[in-house]
Amino acid sequence: MDYCSVSAEELALTCFRGGDESSWAEFVRRFHPLIASVVVRVARQWGESSAQVVDDLIQETYLKLCADRLRLLQNFASTDENSIYRYIKVVTANLSQDHFKASRSLKRGGGVVVVSSDNELPNATLPASPAESSDRRVLIREVDACIRTVTRGTHGERDRQVFWLYYRVGLTASAIAALPAIELSVKGVESILHRLTTEIREKLVLPTRKGREP
């Protein structure tokens, strides 16, 4: 499908419903100037001028837009052709404000802990019983701790984000590769997923099975 010809609203809703590589690429092309300008404006309000911090926050915004796409889809109400731009602007501003509030609170010892949505497992947004939720939280911590041990170095955080975008958010390798902050080809994303899945299986699954052998 040629997404260049669809309206901004239709494009965004397509991405929020899942989207593919080409839809997300077009989303970035159309909405990146808006998202970047909002992040820069909020950063300046908080006295932050570091280009690295701004770039990281823009990346975080894209990740959260992906992770929260179902909620965004439910909350969006169209009134005119510019509604989607206003909506993305408000969402980005709120995400940026929350980031700096949490950061400031932690620096002051406020004890606020922000758990990124990429620290959840697939289908974590689906209803679950209290027992299932508890088990899932335990598994999340175990998997995330395992990932951190095998994703160190320059690209460690990026590889970890790729893993959770795939297994938690449900994005395809193509959709992940289309995100500007990832800077990987589809094969590159698939390679990371294969490596991390294999290493996690070796560290978590195989030892458990061996421990159960008579």
Q: Nutshell version of this structure?
A:
By secondary structure, the protein is mainly alpha-helical.
Describe this structure as you would to a colleague:
The protein has 214 residues and is an all-alpha fold. It has two domains: 1-112, Rna Polymerase Sigma Factor, Chain: A (Orthogonal Bundle); 115-214, no CATH class. Helix content is 71%, strand content 0%. The chain contains nine helices and no strands. It has helices at residues 8-16, 21-45, 51-67, 69-75, 83-107, 130-150, 156-169, 173-178, 186-212.
Regions with pLDDT < 50 over 5+ consecutive residues?
Answer: 109-132, 207-214
CATH class of the largest domain: Mainly Alpha
Counting helices, strands and paired strands, the structural category is: mainly alpha
Helix content: over 70%
Largest sheet, strands/sense/barrel? none
Please state the CA-atom Rg, rounded to the nearest Å.
19 Å
Distance between the termini: 56 Å
The best one-word shape is globular
Fold topology:
Layout: H1 8-16, H2 21-45, H3 51-67, H4 69-75, H5 83-107, H6 130-150, H7 156-169, H8 173-178, H9 186-212
Helix pairs in contact: 1-2, 2-3, 2-5, 3-5, 6-9, 7-9
How would you describe this structure in keywords?
single chain, 214 residues, mainly alpha, Rna Polymerase Sigma Factor, Chain: A, 2 domains, 9 helices, 71% helix, globular, disordered C terminus
